[in-house]
C-alpha cells in the first residue's frame, strides 16, 4: 500500500579491469587544464589570480598569496560543466579522496543525503565551507547534504586533504571542502538538462538560471536551481539483481567437514515467513512445516537448503529482495542571491541569502514477523485442523511467522528546508592589511514521516481475538474481557477501537484492521545556527627572505536543535522507526592565528623555504577548552621540485545530535556468531551526553614536480596519516555483537541483551572508541598542451589507503580494502585500497570531446571473515567505468552538450547485506544505476 506522496526521482555508476599498478602508471601521466585554449585551465593547486582578483585561486590556508604546505585539489567551473554536474554529490565518485555517500532510505538516517567524507573517516570530520564560511547542518544528525549548495553559480571547489582545524576551525579533522560561488557574475546564463538510464528509468530533469548586474556601486547576483531525480526503488529493475542473493547462516557448520559458517546463495527466501503465515520452525513436530493458503487452508511448507533462523535458499518462503532500493526519489529547488556594495576601492559590504527546499521519498520493507506471532488455541480465525492438533497435544498456543503484505511497504518522506542568511564587510587598510567581518544566520527544518507503520500494541490486541459468545462473531479478547474500559485503563483508545485481525492466508487482513493498526511516525526538527566572525590579514614586517604574513581571527557560533515526535513514537509503539524527540544547544568560541615566515630566497641551498604556523583555541560550552595547532613547511630546492609537509593537531567535539538525541529503535537481522543463528532483533540508537572531544594527530608530506622542459605538466605525490584518539563512533548492532562475541571486546558486551543464547536487544549508542587511524598516499597529475589546432587536457587522481583501523578494548581491526557494507567496525565503514580517475579532454573551435576513466579497487566483503571458515569466498572484484562527454557551441551564446556515464554498463559486484530485503550490491563504491545518458543546453548572454 503506497502513500499518496507522488514526488519521485534518482542517482549514479560499473566495469572490471585495470589493476592498481596499471592505474598508477596511467594516472601519473595525467591531468587537467582548460577545455578551450583561450580559457584558463582548471587548477590542481595554487594558481595566479587575474589582475582584478585580490586573492589567488587556491590557498588551502587563511593567508592569501601563500602556497600552502597542505595538499589542495581544485575543481573548476569548466570541469564541472564538462561532466554535466548538477549535484555536488556527483564529484564524490570522480574524486578518489572522497568516499561516496547516500542513504537510500532503508534506515532511520537522513534519506537521500549525500555528505562529503574525506578519507572515509566520516562526514562529521570533514568541514564544509561556502565562500569560506561554515555551512550549517541540514538535518538533525549534524550532516550536511552537499546537494543543497546551488550548482548554477559554483566557480570552483577547493578540497584540503589534510588536518586543518587550526586554520579553518573545529571539525576539519580529515580536511575541508570549500565551495566558492561567482559573486561577480555579469549577464544572464542558464541551462536545461535531462538524463535517464539505459533501462528507461532513473529520470533526472534539471534546470538553472543565473543573473548578474553591476549598477551604481552595487553588484547583484541571483540564481535558481531545480533538480528532480525519479529514483529507483526496486533492485529487481536491474538484471544483475534478479537472483535474490543473500548471506545465509549455514546449519551444517561446524559439524560438517568443509562447511563455512556463512553462505552467499541465490534464491534467498524467509525460512519461517510467508504471505499467508507459516508455523514457526521451533513448533512441536505435528505443527512443523505447515503454511496457510487462501482462506486459511492448511498446506505443507517446503523448506530449501541452508535453512537458518531467517533465510534459506529455495523453498516456499516469501522474499522481499526485489524491493531493495537502489536510490530514493528527490526533488529539490535552490535559490541564492547576493548584493555587494563597493563603497570605495578599499571598502565593500555584502548581504546574501540561500534557500533550499527538498522533498524526498523512499520506501522500505513490508512488516515482517519472523516466527514471533503468538496464536492462542481459541483464536477466532484459527483453522480447525490446527486447533485439533493443539488440543491433541495439550498445547494452548503456538507461533507463526508472516509477511504483512496487506499493510504495504513502509515509506519515508522528508521535507527539508534550509535557509542561510549572511551579511558582512571587508576591506583593506594601510600597508596592505585586509580585514573582514561577517554574521551568518541559518534556519533548517527537517520534517520526516515514516508511513505505513504498524502500532505493535494494537497489532497484538487485534491478533488475540476470540469468538464473542453473544454474537458468534470475532472480537478482541481484551474488549470482550473489558467491554467498557475507562480512559485511564485505555488512554490511547487501543482497546475501545480494537478490530480483530485474521492472519491465516494471504490477503486475509481486513481494511478495517489495517486502518486500526496503521499510522505514521513523525519527526519535526528545527535547527538554528548563528555564526559571527572577524579576520585580519597582512604583513607586519619582513625577514631577509621576504614579507612575513599573518592572519588572525575569532569566531562565535551558537547552535540549537529542537526535535519533536508523535505520541506513539514517544512510547516506542511503532514496528519500525520510532523517532525520538530531543532538544539541545551549544556555543563555541574560537580564536586563531596563522603565520607564514619566509626563511630562504634564491640561496645556495635552494630557491625558497617558507614555514607555516597556526594555532587555535576553541571553547565548547559542552566539553570545555581545547587547543589545536599546525606546523608546515614548503621547500623548493630547484625550479622543478617543491617539497611540502604539515603536522597538525586537530579536534572535533560531539554535535547536538550525538550528545542529546533520544533512543530510536528499529528491527534488523543480527547473526549470533557463536550459535550461527540469524534473527530479527530490536536495535536502539541514540546520543550520549558523556562524549569527549576527539583529538587527531595528522601528518601530510609530499613533493610537487613541475619540470620546465615539459610546459604544462605537473605531478604531485603526498603521503597522509591520521591518528584519532577518543573517536566518536556509531557502531551497528552486528558490529557490537561481533565485537563482543568474536573479538572479545568486553566493553561492547554491556550493549547486548540475551535471553539464554538468543540476542533480544542491542543498544548501538554512540561511544568514544579508543583509537582510529588512516594512512595512505595521493597522486595527482596534470598535463595540458596544444594539439592539432586545439588543446588537449589530461588529469589524473589516485588515492591508495594502506590502513583504516579502529582499536577498541585492545583489539585493532583494519578496514582498508573492505568494500562490503557488513560487519565493519570502522568509524565510517571500510574503503577500497585503490581508487583513481583519469580524464582526457580535447577542445577546438567551440567543440570539445572528453573521456573519464574511473577505477574502484576490489577487496574484502568483510574484514572480520576468515576465508574458508566464515565464508568460502571473501573477495570482491574491482570495477572500471568509462564516461564520455561532448560539447558544441551553436553560437557564441548557446552550447549543446551530452554525456554517457558507465558506457559499458558494467554491473556492480556482489556485496549483499544482512537486512530483511537483502541488497545484491550494498557497497557505496560501485555503480548500481548502469549506463546513463544526459543531454542539455546552456546559454550565456
UniProtKB/TrEMBL annotation:
Protein's membrane topology: Multi-pass membrane protein
Keyword ATP-binding applies: no
UniProt domain TonB-dependent receptor-like beta-barrel: residue ranges: 412-903
Disordered: annotated segments: 35-54
Signal peptide: 1-35
Domain TonB-dependent receptor plug residue range list: 68-176
Source superkingdom: Bacteria
A Pfam family annotated for this UniProt entry: TonB_dep_Rec_b-barrel
Cellular localization per UniProt: Cell outer membrane
Keywords: Cell outer membrane, Membrane, Receptor, Signal, TonB box, Transmembrane, Transmembrane beta strand, Transport
Family of this protein: Belongs to the TonB-dependent receptor family.
Protein's name according to its UniProt entry: TonB-dependent receptor
Organism of origin: Sphingomonas agrestis
Amino acid at each position: 500500500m503506497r502513500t499518496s506522496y507522488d514526488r519521485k526521482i534518482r542517482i549514479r555508476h560499473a566495469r572490471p579491469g585495470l589493476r592498481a599498478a596499471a592505474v598508477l602508471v596511467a594516472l601519473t601521466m595525467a591531468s587537467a587544464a582548460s577545455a578551450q585554449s583561450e580559457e584558463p585551465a582548471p587548477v590542481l593547486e595554487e594558481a595566479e589570480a587575474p589582475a582584478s582578483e585580490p586573492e589567488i585561486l587556491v590557498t588551502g590556508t587563511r593567508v592569501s598569496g601563500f602556497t600552502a604546505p597542505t595538499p589542495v585539489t581544485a575543481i573548476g567551473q569548466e570541469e564541472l560543466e564538462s561532466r554535466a554536474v548538477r549535484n555536488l554529490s556527483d564529484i564524490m565518485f570522480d574524486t578518489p579522496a572522497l568516499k561516496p555517500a547516500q542513504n537510500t532510505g532503508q534506515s532511520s538516517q537522513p534519506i537521500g543525503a549525500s555528505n562529503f567524507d574525506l578519507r572515509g573517516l566520516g562526514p562529521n570530520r570533514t568541514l564544509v565551507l561556502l565562500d569560506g564560511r561554515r555551512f550549517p547542518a541540514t538535518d538533525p544528525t549534524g550532516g550536511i547534504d552537499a546537494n543543497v549548495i546551488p550548482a548554477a553559480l559554483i566557480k570552483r571547489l577547493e578540497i584540503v586533504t589534510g588536518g586543518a582545524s587550526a586554520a579553518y576551525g573545529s571539525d576539519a579533522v580529515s580536511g575541508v571542502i570549500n565551495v566558492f560561488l561567482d559573486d561577480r557574475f555579469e549577464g544572464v546564463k542558464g541551462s536545461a538538462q535531462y538524463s535517464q538510464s539505459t533501462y528507461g528509468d532513473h529520470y533526472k530533469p534539471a534546470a538553472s538560471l543565473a543573473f548578474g548586474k553591476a549598477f551604481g556601486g552595487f553588484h547583484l547576483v541571483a540564481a535558481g536551481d531545480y533538480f528532480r531525480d525519479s529514483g529507483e526503488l526496486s533492485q529487481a529493475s536491474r538484471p544483475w539483481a534478479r537472483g535474490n542473493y543473500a548471506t545465509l547462516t549455514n546449519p551444517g557448520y561446524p559439524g560438517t567437514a568443509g562447511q563455512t559458517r556463512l553462505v552467499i546463495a541465490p534464491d534467498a527466501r524467509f525460512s519461517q515467513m510467508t504471505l499467508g503465515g507459516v508455523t514457526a520452525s521451533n513448533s512441536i513436530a505435528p505443527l512443523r512445516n505447515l503454511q496457510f493458503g487462501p482462506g486459511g487452508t492448511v498446506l505443507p511448507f517446503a523448506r530449501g537448503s541452508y535453512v537458518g533462523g531467517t533465510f534459506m535458499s529455495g523453498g516456499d518462503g516469501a522474499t522481499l529482495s526485489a524491493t531493495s532500493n537502489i536510490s530514493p526519489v528527490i526533488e529539490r529547488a535552490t535559490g541564492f542571491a547576493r548584493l555587494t556594495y563597493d563603497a570605495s576601492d578599499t571598502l565593500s559590504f555584502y548581504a546574501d541569502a540561500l534557500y533550499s527546499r527538498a522533498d524526498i521519498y523512499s520506501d522500505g520493507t513490508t512488516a515482517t514477523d519472523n516466527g514471533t506471532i503468538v496464536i492462542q488455541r481459541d483464536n477466532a480465525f484459527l483453522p480447525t485442523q490446527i486447533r485439533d492438533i493443539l488440543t491433541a497435544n495439550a498445547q494452548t498456543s503456538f507461533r507463526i511467522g508472516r509477511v504483512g503484505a496487506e499493510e504495504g511497504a513502509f515509506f519515508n518522506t522528508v521535507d527539508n528546508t534550509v535557509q542561510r542568511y549572511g551579511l558582512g564587510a571587508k576591506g583593506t587598510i594601510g600597508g596592505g592589511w585586509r580585514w573582514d567581518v561577517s554574521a551568518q544566520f541559518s534556519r533548517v527544518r527537517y520534517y520526516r514521516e515514516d508511513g505505513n507503520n504498524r502500532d505493535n500494541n494494537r497489532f497484538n490486541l487485534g491478533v488475540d481475538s476470540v469468538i464473542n459468545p453473544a454474537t458468534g462473531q470475532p472480537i478482541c479478547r481484551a474488549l470482550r474481557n473489558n467491554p467498557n474500559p475507562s480512559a485511564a485503563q485505555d488512554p490511547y483508545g487501543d482497546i475501545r477501537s480494537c478490530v480483530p485481525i485474521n492472519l491465516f492466508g494471504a490477503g486475509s487482513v481486513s481494511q478495517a484492521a489495517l486502518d486500526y493498526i496503521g499510522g505514521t511516525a513523525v519527526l519535526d526538527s528545527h535547527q538554528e545556527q548563528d555564526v559571527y566572525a572577524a579576520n585580519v590579514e597582512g604583513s607586519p614586517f619582513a625577514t631577509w627572505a621576504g614579507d612575513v604574513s599573518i592572519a588572525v581571527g575569532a569566531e562565535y557560533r551558537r547552535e540549537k536543535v529542537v526535535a519533536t515526535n508523535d505520541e506513539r513514537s514517544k512510547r516506542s509503539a511503532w514496528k519500525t522507526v520510532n523517532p525520538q524527540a530531543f532538544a539541545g544547544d551549544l556555543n563555541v568560541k574560537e580564536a586563531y592565528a596563522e603565520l607564514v615566515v619566509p626563511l630562504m630566497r634564491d640561496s645556495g641551498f635552494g630557491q625558497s623555504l617558507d614555514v607555516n604556523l597556526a594555532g587555535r583555541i576553541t571553547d565548547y560550552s559542552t566539553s570545555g577548552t581545547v587547543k589545536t595547532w599546525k606546523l608546515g613547511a614548503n621547500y623548493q630546492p630547484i625550479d622543478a621540485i617543491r617539497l611540502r609537509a604539515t603536522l597538525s593537531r586537530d579536534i572535533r567535539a560531539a554535535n547536538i545530535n550525538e550528545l542529546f538525541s533520544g533512543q530510536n529503535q528499529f528491527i534488523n537481522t543480527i547473526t549470533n556468531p557463536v550459535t550461527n543463528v540469524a534473527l530479527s532483533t530490536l536495535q536502539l540508537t541514540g546520543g550520549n551526553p558523556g562524549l569527549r572531544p576527539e583529538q587527531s594527530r595528522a601528518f601530510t608530506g609530499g613533493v610537487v614536480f613541475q619540470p620546465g622542459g615539459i610546459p604544462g605538466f605537473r605531478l604531485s605525490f603526498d603521503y597522509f596519516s591520521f591518528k584519532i584518539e577518543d573517536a566518536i563512533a556509531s557502531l551497528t548492532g552486528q558490529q557490537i555483537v561481533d565485537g563482543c562475541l568474536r573479538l572479545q571486546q568486553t566493553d561492547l558486551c554491556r550493549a547486548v541483551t540475551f535471553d539464554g543464547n538468543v540476542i533480544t536487544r542491542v543498544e548501538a549508542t554512540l561511544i568514544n572508541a579508543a583509537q582510529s587511524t588512516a594512512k595512505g598516499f595521493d597522486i595527482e597529475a596534470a598535463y595540458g598542451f596544444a594539439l592539432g589546432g586545439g588543446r588537449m587536457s589530461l588529469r589524473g587522481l589516485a588515492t591508495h589507503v594502506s590502513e583504516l583501523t579502529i582499536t577498541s578494548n585492545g583489539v585493532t581491526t583494519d578496514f582498508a580494502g573492505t568494500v562490503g557494507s557488513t560487519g565493519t567496525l570502522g568509524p565510517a565503514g571500510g574503503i577500497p585500497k585503490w581508487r583513481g580517475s583519469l580524464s582526457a579532454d580535447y577542445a577546438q573551435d567551440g567543440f570539445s570531446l572528453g573521456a573519464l576513466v574511473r577505477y574502484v579497487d576490489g577487496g574484502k566483503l568483510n574484514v572480520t571473515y576468515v576465508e574458508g571458515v566464515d565464508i568460502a569466498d571473501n573477495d570482491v572484484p574491482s570495477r572500471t567505468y568509462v564516461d564520455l562527454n561532448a560539447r558544441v557551441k551553436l553560437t557564441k551564446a548557446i552550447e549543446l552538450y551530452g554525456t554517457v556515464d558507465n558506457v559499458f554498463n558494467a554491473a556492480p559486484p556482489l556485496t549483499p547485506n544482512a537486512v530483511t530485503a537483502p541488497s545484491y550490491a550494498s557497497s557505496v563504491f560501485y555503480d548500481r544505476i548502469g549506463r546513463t545518458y544526459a543531454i542539455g543546453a546552456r546559454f550565456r548572454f
